[in-house]
Amino acid sequence: METTERREAILAMLTKAERPLTGTELAVRFGVSRQVIVQDIALLRAAGEQILATPQGYLLPQLQKSDNVQAVVACQHSREEIEHELSLVVDLGGKILDVVVEHPLYGEIKGNLMIASRRDVQNFVKQMDSSQAQPLAVLTAGIHLHTIEAPTASVLDEIVAALREAGFLVM
Description:
Elements: H1 3-16, H2 23-30, H3 34-46, E1 52-54, E2 57-59, E3 69-76, H4 82-91, E4 95-103, E5 107-115, H5 118-131, E6 143-150, H6 153-165
């Protein structure tokens, strides 16, 4: 398969996918290395495709209108408290869309999370531990922003109250 055809096929798969697709899954499907897929995704993005990279894999943003509500919250906590923070949100029915920190040199640095379940939280923490990667918040003494999505304003209020009660919100 030619590289252009592979990229078109990757885009078609992402368009039809009901869940994020990992680089490894795509590499196996097309008989190439994961690094080739990473390069394909980079070139598709450079061509204007809005492909998100999340800890669960690659996905296209949903084009349909959602009735969900969103809020950006400022949090601060230690690395050891990440699982607790994320679990509070998903256990109450929310989804953590991203994490953002303000870097003094680079400005805003954003990571797409798309964490919507306890399983997502556990996988994220496992990946963080096994890779020994540091969370973005280490750059800002633990201070970071999350965009949180919830099905209703009352659920979102409940999530914010739980984060406040746990001492995670920056006032």
